[in-house]
Design brief:
The protein has 14 helices and 6 strands. The chain has 413 residues and is mainly α. A hairpin with a 2-residue loop joins strand 2 and strand 3. The N terminus is likely disordered.
Length: 413
């Protein structure tokens, strides 16, 4: 992903206006406490998800299947709010691809529709279908998939150095629960039947036992990965320690995460790109049609970080720090962030009334397109206000992630 610069010029020598002792450390510790709580909540909901998946695999039924899907939806609520810790924290960025990578070439994992095709010039594992094949031989390499377990999933993840070979994390589990969404820009999510996990002759889709093995291994690995991130943000964790060892760089990390998620990632790659192309394949939670919620909680995560509030955690915030320099700038950024959350909430309302994100971005849906564009505009505006906060705090520049969909639309095809 390309980067866009807000400010004057890129400089590694940051200027910083002095503040009273402990002012930065209080903000950084509260930020770290929010990260810890967010990942702990994600861990707890992932454990509940795993329990629901165990019940599905043990006793497949329409009820256990619906419960498993609801548990996945519930697990997304705290996790999406942690995405504001990306981009500025290497400990998160080095890890995040294991749990929330997207989009994925789902043919690596399981059966797909005929329209999916069998070949891809960029991905030799495009249609490997590990669930159906106990051995896969491609380009002279044999993958032994006789036992579907955590070790196999780790080996498969981004196999062949292809990022679309997503074998682990939330979206692999999402695909295994919903299946492909073949509705295009029309209503409806994936329609995988619960009988894809049924026993004996009731099994649909073939290889139901192996599909269950994959589902449970993926959720076990998700729990393990989230546990690592809890540790990274505890009292002596690497994430917290990295922030506090250089308080100036720590504040930069907070602002970088907010600005990059706001602009290049959420406004650009996850929203504007799909709107420009009217392409449902570009939506984040594409199998479950949960993208409206995913976007809302991403926006909420940025708000959490700026105000220093999440769940039971509340302490000195970046807002307080900016307000101590220029309250007008601090309040304007607060107002703009509130506006982006509100714009996201309107997409949630539309989805509850029957228009999911893939419908909203559909060609010819003028009112839906406008609702999505309003969200993009709100995110772009709040990024401009983040830029002003950067200046107020005395930094020369901070580098945010960019997106061709916003910065160079003619390059998008």
């Amino acid at each position: 992903m390309k980067k866009i610069l807000f400010g004057i010029v890129v400089s590694t020598a940051l200027t910083f206006t002095p503040a009273s002792a402990g002012q930065y450390s209080d903000v950084l510790n509260n930020y770290s406490d929010i990260a810890y709580k967010g990942y702990k909540d994600s861990f707890d909901t992932a454990k509940k998800l795993h329990s629901a998946l165990e019940k599905l695999v043990k006793s497949p039924s329409s009820v256990t299947f619906a419960n498993a899907k609801q548990a996945w939806l519930n697990s997304r609520i705290p996790y999406q709010q942690t995405e504001a810790f990306r981009f500025g924290n290497p400990v998160v960025d080095d890890w995040e691809g294991k749990v929330n990578a997207w989009p994925l070439d789902e043919g690596l994992i399981d059966y797909v529709s005929k329209d999916y095709g069998v070949d891809s010039e960029s991905n030799p594992y495009y249609s490997a279908n590990i669930i159906a094949n106990k051995k896969v031989k491609i380009a002279g390499e044999t993958v032994d998939a006789s036992n579907i377990n955590i070790d196999l999933l780790k080996k498969l993840h981004e196999i062949g150095e292809v990022e679309a070979n997503v074998a682990t994390g939330y979206h692999a589990i999402e695909f295994l629960l919903w299946g492909q969404d073949l509705n295009g820009n029309d209503a409806g999510a994936g329609k995988r039947p619960y009988t894809d996990y049924a026993k004996g002759s009731k099994c649909t889709g073939g290889n139901c036992e192996r599909r269950g093995d994959y589902l449970l291994a993926a959720s076990e690995l998700l729990i393990s990965d989230l546990k690592d991130m809890i540790k990274a943000w505890d009292k002596y964790g690497e994430g917290r320690k990295n922030l506090l060892k250089n308080e100036k760089a720590g504040i930069v990390a907070i602002l970088t995460g907010m600005g990059s998620l706001s602009y290049g990632e959420l406004a650009g790659e996850r929203t504007k790109l799909g709107l420009m192309l009217h392409d449902p394949e570009e939506e984040h939670d594409c199998f479950s049609d949960n993208t409206h919620n995913s976007h809302f909680y991403d926006a909420k995560g940025i708000q959490n970080v700026y105000l220093g509030k999440y769940s039971s955690v509340h302490g000195r915030s970046l807002y307080d720090l900016v307000a101590s320099k220029d309250k007008k700038v601090a309040d304007k950024l607060k107002k703009d962030i509130n506006a982006s959350v509100e714009a996201a909430s309107k997409m949630v309302v539309l989805a509850k009334n029957g228009q999911a994100f893939d419908q909203l971005i559909g060609e010819g849906n003028k009112s839906g397109n406008k609702a999505v564009q309003n969200f993009v505009d709100a995110l772009v505006q709040q990024t401009k206000s983040i830029e002003k906060a950067v200046a107020v705090l005395g930094f020369s520049t901070i580098e945010f992630e960019g997106s061709d969909s916003l910065d160079n639309p003619s390059a998008v095809q």
